[in-house]
Amino acid sequence: MTELLYLHDGYLREFDATITAVDGRDVSLDRTAFYPGGGGQPADTGVLEWHGEQSRVAEMRREGDAVWHVLEGPAAGGAVRGRVDWDRRYAIMRHHSGLHVLVGAVYRLFGALVTGGAIYPDRARMDFALEDLSKERVAAIEAEANRIISEDRPIRVRFVSREEFERSDLTGFDAQADGGTHVARTGEIGGLAITKTENKGKANRRLEIMLR
Ligand SMILES: [Zn+2]
Asked: Is the pLDDT reported for residue 103 higher than 60?
């Protein structure tokens, strides 16, 4: 089982760990700050270092309770130091948090729920169960989102049991229960622009955001 350090500290960029299993170039650690991907947020990249050597973490995979780091070079055993590619991860965290603000703005203005989404280091997108997405509505959503960002509100991460998660999921409250990484305050997002809208079918509209 891998302890998921990023759940309790999204700002952790370096950590010490022990390799618990090796499978070719894949290593499993007892703890990791690397986000393994999921919920629309891509897996982290970075390096693992040991005895003066290092190898890049090119991919991640999750298998049961274990998180595997897929290395570019050959793996070693024992103690390692992990270093997350921080600029990339922080950009992803800001876009992820920006999506939460967007979701809040769309729900508050039009009562529309999320149908899907994806996060990248330079942009993010979210699909909403929404029929009408006029220019005026897009402008209103953008203004509301930027108002929330400028208020520099704290972003609180709450941990729920699997049972509670599934229950919330069933009632449609899924936007916040994602297990990803977030910035601590909305002010860190800086500001967002809705750069693209797409019609993805009846009552399904896609909004793409980029941060300023
Ligand atoms: Zn989230």
From this structure: yes
